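Backbone Fold Data
Goal — fold tokens
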Amino acid sequence: METNPTEKQLWEEAVAFTRDKSPGSFDQWFCGVQFDGLTDGVLCLRARNEFVRDWVDQFFMPTLTDHIRSRTGWSIQVAWTVGGELDRPAINPPPERTVREDASRITGPNWPASEDAGPASQASAPWSERRVARPAVQAVAPPLEGLNPKYTFSNFVIGPSNQLAHAAAIGAAGGGGPRHNPLFLCGGTGLGKTHLVHAVAHRVRAERPSTRIVYVSAEKFVNEFVQALQEQRMNEFRARFRDRCDLLLVDDIQFLASKTQTQEEFFHAFNTLHQADKQIIVTSDKYPQQLERMEERLISRFTWGLVADIQAPELETRVAIVRKKAQIEGIEIGDDVLLYIAQVIRSNVRELEGTLIRLAAKASLTSRIIDLDFARAEIALSSSARANEASVEDVQRVVCHHFKLKSGDLLSKDRHKSVAFARHVAMYLCRERLKCSLPELGRAFGNRDHTTVMSAVRKVKALRGADPEVRAHLEALERKLGTVD
């Protein structure tokens, strides 16, 4: 397959960049990988076998694709082909004696390079059939407990709602760009915070295997702290989180709220690591200043670095997320169904992916194809989906009826006080109830700027707490929306 010089040059630059991170391990694996082309952001690769594909995809492709993305701005998708002769391996295989000597040096002279063949038969086999990659497996640290192997940078769909958080996570993993310490990721449930934290751990483990990574949820941190107190093992506990840690990743820090002793212990661990310039990444469902029953000194430290929020994805990003998940899981699905799922499920990424998996499972069990009629029927059966099926148009219609306005008033340029108030209320309800993104709402309300929507939502939220009349209007509207079909 012929490729133009630009495509090939991009590939070779990315290979050289990735190889610099871990040359020995890289050469062992990439002698079983071949570049077949790069077109419109789709990187076509061939792997000698599935073992090589899976390992390269997990530990090397995030760095490689990020490098291409940084040079081109493309969203890179990797298309693998497994098996077949490799005419142009990315890395030329080393001489045969080097392979045998490396195997002997790592595992002893009698180590069989294959489970069913000894050294002699391996020496006579062609390179493409040898299992020489096993020494590299032994040399790489095992995966960390609790990490999802699918949560990598290459599987993360980037959009306006998460672009800053993604770039900051790349920097924290040493992938280029500024490094902020600490990095505080905040956002609602299921929007990708944990995905980014796992991706950082996978990237650091692949590129710097000796790095001591501690990944823990705040709940687990509390449990380990209590257990250490009961068993009088506090020295061991403190050593793990202070002395034997180069990268600390803590999920759902809001769980420490009101736990005074645990906050005290985390405060000292934080200070020790930060003073030693060890990277700290924390996630939360709220901004630091909104964390209730959290010590001020901790809140202050969370804002020392960068606070990056993740918003609900807009429609285009939701479509891309469902498409990516379908590719990963090998689910055949049409663009019309992808769009329908993204339009109906607005709340978070986790529910989007769950809906797709549920459709695929039901289609497999009933021997159906996932077409639009099938998707409509199945999603309608889900109570969570029914709650989300009230659309922006539904909210606008109910608000207009409540305030006795015409259907087009909310989209018009009319700034009369009564119309503007109704418009602001409709924006607030869409944002709170449907979790629509600010740009998406701006387009739905007469192509207004997202800052206009943000201002309206903040204003109505403040009035709800201070003005009984506004609160009464909102409660009446919410009761009506609860009955929308």
Remarks:
- The longest strand covers residues 33-39.
- The chain has 23 helices and eight strands.
- Confidence is low (pLDDT under 50) at residues 95-140.
- The chain has four domains: 5-139, 153-310, 315-388, 392-481.
